[in-house]
Amino acid sequence: MTGPAQQDQTRTALRYDSTVPRAMVHRSAIAEVFLTDSRPVPDRPDTYEVAAQLPRAHIMGEQSGTHDFLLLVEVLRQAGVYLAHAYENVSLDDSFIFRSLRIGIRDLSALRSGGDRPAQAVVTLTVDPQRKRNGRVHALDFSGTLAIEGRTVLHVGGGLAFFGRTVYRALRARRRDALAGVIGALPTHVAAPPALVGRRDPYNVVVTRPVAAGESTLAATVLPDTTHPHLFDHQLDHIPGNLLLEAARQLAAASVAALHSISATGLQVTALDARFEEFAELDLPARAVARVEQFRVDRTLGTLVVPVVVDIVQQERVAASFRLEVAQ
To answer: What is the C-alpha to C-alpha distance for residues 170 and 114, in angstroms, rounded to an integer?
Structure first.
């Protein structure tokens, strides 16, 4: 769905000199907005290019010399939400949730950060809006690529769901009513040592020290710190998907490191298949359980990868499930 102003954008280069409005990507802090521009792709229906600037330093990136996987996911999330608002008339008042997300890294060397300026990225997405009878978009599937400095880094696919304010409040109220009597203040837990989960900054650790939970299986408690400026950029009534993903990544790195006697530092996620089943509540214990599978050869990357399945469980129900592949 494009108008004259949007069609004119196809004849101009993508700009990187200012960010898009923060409301368009559901962020409060301007510093957390990475998108800068967009345009439809000529002769490709429902396909758009979205420009993004990747920060040289960020609290989640920890200046590791590699563009952080979680920040790439955030760029993709912002691109999907922005396209829904800018081109599919989804209301800015609508809430959204990730239904699914699939990512496959295609070029590890292109993930290296550095240089004397922030890197320029382009997300190219084809969208498939799902509409109600009144024409309102209630879900959006997408697929495409992310390129950094002209090199395709990853392929992506996934889906978002959108809820009007009244519907969202009703959904949350029904869920909270069902949990009456079991929700409440959580016990205090100690975070894992950063190096154990592949992190450097203790502030970014979101799980407890993993413990054995069966053959090739480790478990940890998820620690949602609502003061974290990236993971909780604004007030939320549930544990956000990016924090659940970070918990899965940290537990996967710790599990692979423990079972293969290697360091968790430097392990990279090369593939992700995420499914979000229901809201993860802030005031219910959340347990992450990781099952490490046999390694395989990723011929595209030319390296060994280790698949890890991580479930986030509350009240014996799986709130989210992640299948990650991890490589050195």
So the answer is: 46
* Residue/partner pairs of 134-142 with CB below 8 Å, 24 or more apart: 137/84, 137/88, 137/89, 137/90, 137/162, 138/162, 138/163, 139/99, 140/80, 140/83, 140/84, 140/88, 140/90, 142/80, 142/83
Question: What pLDDT is attached to residue 64?
Answer: 72
Distance CA 265, CA 195 (A): 6
> What is the per-residue DSSP string for 212-271?
E-STTEEEEEB---TT-TTTTSS--SS--HHHHHHHHHHHHHHHHHHHHT--STT-EEEE
- At 17, the amino acid letter reads D
pLDDT digits (tens, 9 = 90+) for 240-264: 999 999 999 999 999 999 999 999 9
The 10 Å Cβ neighbour count of residue 235 is 7
Tens digits of residue pLDDT in 310-321? 999 999 999 999
What is the pLDDT averaged over residues 219-233? 97
Cα–Cα separations (whole angstroms), residue 71 to 56, 57, 60, 101: 11, 11, 7, 14
